[in-house]
Design brief:
single chain; mainly alpha
């Protein structure tokens, strides 16, 4: 049986795969930032959901990258975690 590392090494040899993987980076960066804000605020997904008046499964979907949050939702997350939302564009 091959390991995940062996399979991914093969996939990364494909230019098409690398491009698709790189295209997902902003979504995973956002999901990571959501998790980081929640963890720094010492909140569980359930506690964050309660503060935002939503559900824990919704928080889980956003943190997994399956459900991209709207700007309004990002503002609610910032308020609930005691952070400030900052969106910016940088040179490609």
């Amino acid at each position: 049986m091959r390991t995940v590392r062996e399979v991914s090494k093969k996939w990364f040899k494909s230019k098409k795969f690398r491009e698709a993987y790189d295209a997902l980076e902003p979504e995973y960066a956002l999901a990571g930032a959501l998790i980081e804000a929640r963890m720094k605020a010492k909140l569980s997904q359930k506690e964050l959901a309660h503060k935002m008046k939503t559900t824990q499964p919704m928080i889980a979907r956003m943190e997994s990258g399956r459900q991209p949050p709207s700007t309004a939702t990002l503002l609610k997350i910032a308020k609930a975690t005691g952070t400030r939302l900052q969106i910016r564009f940088v040179e490609a």
